[in-house]
């Protein structure tokens, strides 16, 4: 199966090539040329199967033989062997028809681990087969960075550079990036916001000479493999609640739109999903867009759910591509408008298609804190602030449709955000044992200005990788 760019001007690539490419050379994002559809009988058969068995089938369909089946199965098994829960991504019930899908049992306590632990192995596997090396540059608002560093630390074929916004991530998130002492890992604090970091990253991808010189790869959710791996837990959780015979809805705390897009992918693959609810914090660009049809950037505000403090929601481009019937030229025009004027308007037809499947709602700081407090008092369950945004959105969704089970994606462990959680609930969540001494570990990072040339120089000087050189 080939993958095409949302901007229609880059060459179509296999899964492995799209995995290494990250962003397409025309600035677009890769998606499969068509969606593989799983028969309903096969989805029903996922009941009682382990997470890894379902992952083998879902990712087998999405990789379509490009990764050898036995190797894929071994990588999936290894990726999830270290998760702290035997179900990998268990479901917990909060209230009537309200469930939290816990995605934070991996090494860095965030949903990013679910895809990243597999991505590290997939990239290493493909690079080894090709005798190549890569330089990964990632942008993070807090969680992707730590998960990428954990997944890629110590790998001989890869150097990892993570750009994070200085002073805008939680202490736990920062330390998960800055305390890993591996020669191939570089944490870079950027004097700017997450959107600045993501813009720098995209500029590096669009600087083709630099991209080729260092063998640039990306592990943000602009990389199709990230979204593919995240689609698996939609299947396991829906089936656990009676799918595919019974439809479920999902509420997803959203920033870069990767996680909720994975739900859209699962739906395209045949999973019956009633509604996909986008929950934003007070950086509500997606909620405004669905309400008005106008995607319009405003300044980003710092919130207690910092990983969602985003204005440029990269994966929304993949949804726009679908909503415009895969017309790359139309998407190109929208993205040019965004770059030139900070806004674009979605025409009535594509907007109706988006609204047909998605709802969006913003949950402000007071409501987020109230959700943390309420869930603790009523269910004895401690939410992290991002998951609390999802629960806030879910409760509104349940008011409209109380009969359909609602699954909230639990995207982070509360101990990643102890200050906000304690302020809201009075409870101090403890870090799991493997991170108990995180606050005492030595930090290593480089502070750089929001300046493309300076950051490219730093990467160039510290990257050992040249695409095509034998590892
Ligand atoms: C804890 C947490 N929740 C939610 C999100 C939003 O996910 P996405 O960017 O895929 O929309 C992020 C960041 O990606 C996150 O780290
Ligand atoms: N919230 C993210 C931002 C980057 O998202 P990604 O899913 O595109 O990697 C983070 O925590 O870094």
From TrEMBL:
Entry's SUPFAM superfamilies?
Tryptophan synthase beta subunit-like PLP-dependent enzymes
Q: Which cofactor does it need?
A: pyridoxal 5'-phosphate
Residues that bear N6-(pyridoxal phosphate)lysine: 112
Q: Does the keyword Ion transport apply?
A: no
What keywords appear on the UniProt entry?
A: Amino-acid biosynthesis, Lyase, Pyridoxal phosphate
Which Pfam families does the protein's record reference? Answer: THR4_C, Thr_synth_N
Keyword Amino-acid biosynthesis assigned: yes
Q: Which pathway does it operate in?
A: Amino-acid biosynthesis
**Domain (Threonine synthase N-terminal): residue spans on this chain:** 5-80
Q: Name one GO biological process term.
A: threonine biosynthetic process
Write down the top EC class of this protein. lyase
User: Its catalytic activity?
Assistant: O-phospho-L-homoserine + H2O = L-threonine + phosphate
Q: Which family does it belong to?
A: Belongs to the threonine synthase family.
Protein name stated in the entry: Threonine synthase
- Tell me what organism the protein belongs to: Bosea vaviloviae
């Amino acid at each position: 199966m080939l993958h095409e760019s949302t901007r229609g001007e880059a060459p179509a690539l296999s899964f492995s090539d799209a995995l290494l490419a990250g962003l397409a050379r025309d600035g677009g994002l890769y998606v499969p040329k068509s969606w593989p559809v799983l028969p309903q009988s096969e989805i029903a058969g996922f009941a009682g199967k382990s997470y890894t068995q379902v992952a083998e089938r879902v990712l087998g369909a999405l990789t379509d033989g490009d990764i050898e089946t036995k190797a894929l199965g071994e990588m999936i098994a290894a990726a999830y062997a270290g998760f702290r829960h035997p179900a990998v991504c268990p479901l917990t019930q909060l209230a009537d028809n309200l469930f939290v899908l816990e995605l934070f049992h991996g090494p860095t306590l965030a949903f990013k681990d679910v895809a990243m632990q597999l991505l590290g192995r997939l990239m290493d596997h493909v690079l080894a087969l090709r005798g190549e090396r890569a330089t990964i540059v990632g942008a993070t608002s807090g969680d992707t960075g730590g998960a990428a560093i954990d997944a890629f630390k110590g790998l001989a074929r890869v150097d990892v550079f993570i750009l994070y916004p200085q002073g805008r991530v939680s202490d736990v998130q920062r330390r998960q990036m800055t305390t890993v002492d591996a020669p191939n890992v570089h944490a870079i604090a950027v004097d700017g916001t997450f959107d600045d970091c993501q813009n720098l990253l995209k500029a590096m991808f669009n600087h083709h000479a630099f991209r080729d010189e260092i063998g640039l790869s990306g592990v943000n959710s602009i990389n199709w493999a990230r979204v593919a791996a995240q689609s698996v837990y939609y299947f396991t959780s829906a089936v656990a609640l009676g799918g595919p015979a019974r439809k479920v809805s999902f509420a997803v705390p959203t920033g870069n739109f990767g996680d909720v897009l994975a739900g859209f992918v699962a739906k395209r693959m045949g999973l019956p999903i009633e509604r996909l609810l986008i929950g934003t914090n007070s950086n509500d660009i997606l909620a405004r867009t669905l309400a008005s049809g106008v995607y319009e950037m405003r300044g980003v505000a710092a919130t207690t759910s910092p990983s969602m403090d985003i204005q440029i929601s990269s994966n929304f481009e993949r949804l726009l591509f679908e909503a415009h019937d895969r017309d790359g030229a139309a998407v190109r025009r929208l993205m040019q408008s965004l770059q030139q004027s900070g806004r674009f308007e979605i025409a009535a037809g594509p907007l109706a298609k988006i609204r047909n499947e998605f709802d969006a709602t913003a949950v402000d700081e007071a409501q987020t804190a109230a959700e943390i407090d309420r869930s603790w008092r009523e269910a004895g369950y401690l939410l992290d602030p991002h998951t609390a945004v999802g629960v806030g959105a879910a409760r509104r969704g349940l008011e409209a449709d109380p009969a359909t089970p609602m699954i909230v994606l639990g995207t982070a462990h509360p101990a990643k955000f102890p200050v906000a959680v304690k302020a809201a609930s009075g409870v101090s969540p403890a870090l799991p044992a493997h991170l108990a001494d995180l606050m005492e570990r030595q930090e290593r990072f480089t502070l750089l200005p929001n300046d493309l040339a300076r950051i490219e120089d730093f990467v160039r000087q510290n990257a050992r990788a040249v695409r095509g050189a034998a590892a």
